[in-house]
Amino acid sequence: MFTFISLLSLLPAALSAPIFGLGPSTSDDSATGTPTPVSLATVNSTLLRPAQFSRVAYCSSASITSWSCGAPCDALKNITFLQSGGDEGLIPLYYIAHDADEQTLVVAHEGTDPFKFFSLLNDAELALTPLNSSRFPEAANTDIQVHDGFQETFERTADGLLAGVKAGLASTGVTKVAVTGHSLGAALASMTGAMIKDAVDPSIDVSVVTFGLPRGGNEAWANFLDSKLGLTFVTNQHDPIPIVPPKALGFQHSSGEIHIVDDTQQNLVACPGQDNVNCATGNSVIDFDIINHLGPYFDDVTFGSQECAGVLL
Ligand SMILES: *[C@@H]1O[C@H](CO)[C@@H](O)[C@H](O)[C@H]1NC(C)=O
Ligand SMILES: *[C@@H]1O[C@H](CO)[C@@H](O)[C@H](O)[C@H]1NC(C)=O
Ligand SMILES: *[C@@H]1O[C@H](CO)[C@@H](O)[C@H](O)[C@H]1NC(C)=O
């Protein structure tokens, strides 16, 4: 069971949209470089903890506040909850916490129902819209465009989230911010990371690691993320969400993809360039599996509220 968010209210989209543009992309702006193996030690030290924090974001706000959400919370020790936002309805939940072991401020965004999400991201009526240059001054007079539904959803909690991050940095004294999320939460995390990077002292290290990230904007947005953040996003086998919205509509991934090759949870590769055809972008309409969107990723991390304490299946 998923915490259900009516994305229909965010996008004037019909669910009957055809699925298109899912064939392997061979267009000029897709990278073709050979992926390189990622060691399990690197997975453990850089990807596992963000995945565990993203998994917590699917649990109820009350159980996150008291850090008593069952196995997802128990996997993370020495965490102090600081703030949450969203309403577990139309506005997806996020939380901010202090990770004492890593001396990091963590920001995690909840995702949404993958089946509905996939339909919406395939809708031809969805639009690219200019990145808000009031929030991101560098976007003024550029052609940076993002998914209108993602930006609208992001804006609903952006001000409160940013105030919470500034307060959290001040109260804890840490100098690292780790932003994460899965699915819709991954798209929101990309925007949140860029916002925080713009708003805090340059000495603060802002990192973004996401899971099951859809394409969030055009090539100029992908380049903006590359230069500003150096995003890391993990794609699992034949998950179709990372290949929508299609490149044919002008969407493009940034660099930083790490692809899970098979279901052993042992074989991961780093994919050079943007939209590398040897990784998720090479998936096609005939071999996709939306269950791969949920996981398991590594160390058996699977996303969704079924992982949380007190949830009836
Ligand atoms: C990764 O962490 C898991 C426990 O989460 C451990 O069992 C495994 O040995 C670690 N692997 C490496 C290569 O560090
Ligand atoms: C984390 O918690 C353990 C006990 O669960 C404690 O021994 C350790 O000192 C704590 N670390 C920090 C950084 O607070
Ligand atoms: C753009 O960002 C500003 C904050 O800088 C915010 O107040 C405003 O609502 C945003 N505009 C839109 C259309 O979301």
From TrEMBL:
Keywords: Disulfide bond, Signal. Residues 1-16 form the signal peptide. Residues 106-247 form the Fungal lipase-type domain. It holds the Pfam family Lipase_3. One of its GO terms (biological process) is lipid metabolic process. Gene3D superfamilies: alpha/beta hydrolase. Belongs to the AB hydrolase superfamily. Lipase family. Class 3 subfamily. This is Alpha/beta-hydrolase. It comes from Mycena maculata.
